[in-house]
Specification:
Elements: E1 2-5, H1 10-25, E2 30-35, H2 40-44, E3 52-56, H3 66-89, E4 94-97, H4 104-112, E5 117-120, H5 128-133, E6 139-142, E7 151-153, H6 160-164, E8 174-178, H7 185-200, E9 204-208, H8 214-224, E10 231-233, H9 239-245, E11 248-251, H10 255-264, E12 268-270, H11 280-289, E13 294-296, H12 303-318, H13 326-336, H14 342-352
Parallel strand pairs: 1-2, 1-4, 2-3, 4-5, 5-6, 6-7, 8-9, 8-11, 9-10, 11-12, 12-13
Amino acid sequence: MFVITGGGTGGHLAIAKVLATTLHTKNIPCIYIGSNIGQDRLWFANSEIFENVYFLDSTGVVNKKGFAKIKALYKAYKACIDARKICRQHNANAVISVGGFSAAGASIAALTLKIPLFIHEQNASFGTLNKILRPFAKNVFGAFPHKSKNFVQCAYPIRAEFFAYARIRKEIKTILFLGGSQGAKTINNLALALAPKFLESGLKVIHQCGKADAKRVEIAYKEAGILEKIEFFDFSHNLIEKLIQSDVCISRAGASSVWESCANGLPCFFVPYPYAHKDHQYFNALWFKERNLAGLCRESQNIGELEASILEFLGFLDSSADGIKNIEHISKKLCESISSDGSDEIVRLIESRL
């Protein structure tokens, strides 16, 4: 019996789902241990790929102070006790942590029960929990390179659809702005500023603005007289459709987002979330930027500078030195930068180490 633990946010949970799907396909029984806060329950409460799911009373410890930190630590301790019981009940022989605060209980339980612990680090810089547990894990997997004796670099686990519908972009016809499910105001403001120019140039604009900022953005588009000319929505359960339609994406740089775009061959301009832990979104994007596979600008730059950087990047994509536009070169290199067997490889390696 395998245990998958971790989550809290969509990036961690997306990995958990892909790994669980692979285990399910291989007829390897698996349970999930997460938290009763965050998005864990939303993702897996009714999931059929797990034999059982458990949501423990846990919360994040990082950035908490005083009594709040003591309370969070107590919840982590209690979650560990509960996770020990669950692991024993199911005779767990491996625990896979995908990171996030909800992974703490089951990960520590695995170590105290001497159950092999395997960790997936999704970002270019280690999260706090993964950094603490790294020395005690059997292996740590990740797509971004890390210096660690037990680290194994492998392709990022991504849903098969992103590969199945990948295409090589050859020209810029459609631009996608991804404001995220909650609504990144900087991305949304860039869309509001640039959309009129793009429409004037004959480009199609798709904008996912997030629920929190939807009303403001809708009013702004309406006042500009372009609301009906833009494919505008707050949230979509089928965002892959929008990626497939697009030729360039302007977005944050969460790990799942950058690798999903990569798998689909979609060139991106990244504006990393500046308050991400240890600035991990910046380092995620930097990996692609250093290989000339993406555009990148910090949010600290003013909106005018961001606009100019995006337009410069689009100009570069549209230019050519050998008769083939740079967008086609980059799109091909993106597809070549990730393989579709990341999840299979991780499961195969775990099985070989048990």
